[in-house]
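Page 47, continued from p. 46.
Same chain as before, 419 aa.
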Amino acid sequence: MAVMKPRSEEVAMQTLSEARLAPPDSGLWPAERRKVLDWLVRETREERFIDNIFVDLCRRLSDAGVPVARATLHFRIHHPQWIGARILWRKGLSEAEIDTYEYGVEDSSQYLNSPLREFNNGADEVRRHLDDPAADGPDYPLYDELRADGLTDYIIWPLHHTLGKRHAITFASDRPGGFDADDIAFFSDILPALALVSEIRLKNRLARTLLETYVGPHASEQILAGATTRGSGVTVGAAILICDLRDFTKLSDLWPRDDVIELLNDYFDAMSEPIERHGGEILKFMGDGLLAIFPLTDPCACGQLLAAIDEAQAALSRLNEANLLKGHDPLGYGIGVHVGDVMYGNIGSRKRLDFTVIGPAVNIASRLESLTKELKRPVLLSRAFVERAGCAARLENLGSYALRGLDEPIEVFALSGGK
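Result:
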């Protein structure tokens, strides 16, 4: 028995058939629009970055006779620091300008008194004929800036992505009278294709950002390159740093929840920023501790680790001074440092993996961190690390200690004066 198709599906199939049978020079769009659309859909697949595609698109629109002198893309992004980003092109620019916006920007006077706010409040179009003094609507400060640049027309439209996501695109003209009806039709034709092209790039960037945020830049590159099989990994030489906050359980029991979260964030900022600044990679946060490596592919890795510790200790001292002013006890911490080969890769269950490092060298760093509690020294380093770094002159030899799980005692060093 034949299956009846809904009327809308029949119409869609008929339209598709007609398009396939149509002569090459015919089509749904005029030739210049088809040229730009064909490029946008078929020839941008090798371009990774939407800003480069956007610059090229604006040039092609101009070459096709559309008087675009300025254009922007506004995206909301998932990033721990930024709420959104703007890509700006102006006539004559070979590259786009990219700006990011911090959380809270929506409370700023610049945003509150802008056409973008009107758009984000639900408007499907915000347009201003800048060379018409009698034009209706609010005269935002941005319009004065655009007029000063010689622009005559400004439009914001939505760029629709899947699942109801709505971003913004703007175009401005410098032609007297601004955009005409044919220009508007041209924009209307290309926006759906640009939405698809931009969403693919934005989601690729989102995947990269989320991975960098949660597993670090190097691990994220490995995962994106296909290292997603359990047990896959490589052996690398690394200087290893493990840090732990002291008495965190007691603090979390005594302090309000929000104060504990703020404390942890401040502590991790003090530790993490120097590590990342000096080339280290934080592989994981473990409650109130962290694990970081400095790959020995960098010949200065051990020196960089020591510099990171110096800066982190200074930052923690400043944090403790601030805590004392609030009536809080200073934070204690322990840092264990070792060097050696580690297995770097995917470990876990069939469906849930962790990209991390394991091996005896990691265990020694962990045991040294634990030993800081007993020796009352905040930073302990192994002889293997000290010899590799050539830093014995600035350290104090504390002698040899038996560490859990090791057959032989290990010689331990502390930063001089670090009591």
